[in-house]
Amino acid sequence: MEVEKTMNQTVEKKSSLGIVLALMAGYSMVYMDKSMISTAVIPMAQDFNLDAGQTGLIMSFFFLGYSLMQIPGGWLADKIGAKKVLMLSLGVISLFSFAFGAVSSLMLFVAIRFFAGIGHGGYPPSVTKAVASNFQPDKRTFIQSIILSTSGIGGILAFTLGTNLINANWRYGYLGLGGLFLVSMILVGIFVPKDATSDVTVSSKKIPFSQVISDRNVIVLFVAMLLLNFLLYGNMSWLPTILAQKFGLSIT
C-alpha cells in the first residue's frame, strides 16, 4: 500500500508539472504577441506608409477584441470547460497570427488583430479555471503566480527572438509566432485534463452577476487595473516607435 501511495504521488506530481508547463507555454506566447506588435508596426508603417493614427488602430482593435471577450471567455470556461476554451483560444490566435503575416491591407490588419484579441480574451480566465480545477486551494495562488511570471518570459521572447525575426522581415515574426502558438495548443491538449483531478469542494451557493460587479472590492480592483494598464500598454505600444523616430535607434 505504501509503495502504491508513493507511485500515485509521483504520477500526480508529474501530471501537475505538465499542466503548469503547458499553461506557462501558452501564457508566454500570449505576452510575446502583446509585446511584439509594438516593434512590428515600425517596419509595417514604412512598408505601407501608415501614420500614427493607422498604426494606433491596429494596436487598439486588438485590445478592443481582448476586452470584449474577457468576461464571455470566463463564462465559456465555466460552461464548456477550461481545456476547450484554452485550446480554442490558442488555435484562434495561431490562425490569425499566420494570417497577419500574410496580408497587405490596413483594414485586414485591423480586422485580424481584432480577432486575435478575441482569442487572447479567452486564455487568462481559462487558465484561472484550470488551476482552480486541478489544484488544491492551498496551492492555487502559488501555482497562479508561477504561471503569471511567464509574462516576463513572453516579453523577453518578443524583444529577442521576435525582434530579430522582425528585423529580417516583419512577416517572419508572425509566421514564427503562429507556429509557437500551435505548439502551445498541442501541449495544452496533451497535458491539461478535461476535468478536475483534485478533490475540490465547490460551494452550491450561486452569486448573481449583478452582485459581483457591484461589489466594492471588484470596482476598486477594476479601476486600479484600468489605470495601471493605461500606463503599461500605452508605454509598451508606443515606446519602440518613439525611440526609432526620435533617436534613430534600430529595431534590434
From TrEMBL:
Pfam families per the UniProt record, alphabetical: MFS_1
Keywords: Membrane, Transmembrane, Transmembrane helix, Transport
Entry's localization field: Cell membrane
The organism's place on the tree of life at top rank: Bacteria
Transmembrane segments: 15-32, 52-69, 90-116, 142-162, 174-192, 218-236
Membrane topology: Multi-pass membrane protein
InterPro entries named among the record's database cross-references: MFS (IPR011701), MFS_dom (IPR020846), MFS_Na/Anion_cotransporter (IPR050382), MFS_trans_sf (IPR036259)
PROSITE patterns: MFS
Record-given protein name: Major facilitator superfamily (MFS) profile domain-containing protein
Organism field: Candidatus Enterococcus lowellii
Signal peptide per UniProt: none
Gene3D superfamilies given in the database record: MFS general substrate transporter like domains (1.20.1250.20)
Residue ranges constituting the Major facilitator superfamily (MFS) profile domain according to the UniProt record: 19-252
